[in-house]
Amino acid sequence: MITRKKPEKFRLRRTMMFMNAQKPSLIKDAYIYGSDSIILDLEDAVAENQKDSARFSLYHALKTIDYGDTEVIVRINGLDTPHWQERYSLCCSSRC
What we know:
By secondary structure, this protein is α/β, with parallel strands linked by helices. It has one domain (16-93). It is built from three helices and three strands. The protein has a three-stranded parallel sheet, with no helix packed on it.
């Protein structure tokens, strides 16, 4: 299991990289680009018929990949959509 550092009170974010959560190869190597933050997008970047597979890929990545000091953010659907609870549950269960 990966242990994550406690978040700092203030964090400098010079670069934030959006990644499509549907692309496991991008998620796996996201940290090598040196961004301060990686935003894994489960909302607009993922087609409606691919949401479940993207959620599975992201869950696996969050459980197994060590992003080091890079901040990892998951972008989920809005609270007024049918998908938000599934995405929120994913984040809670993977401890992100």
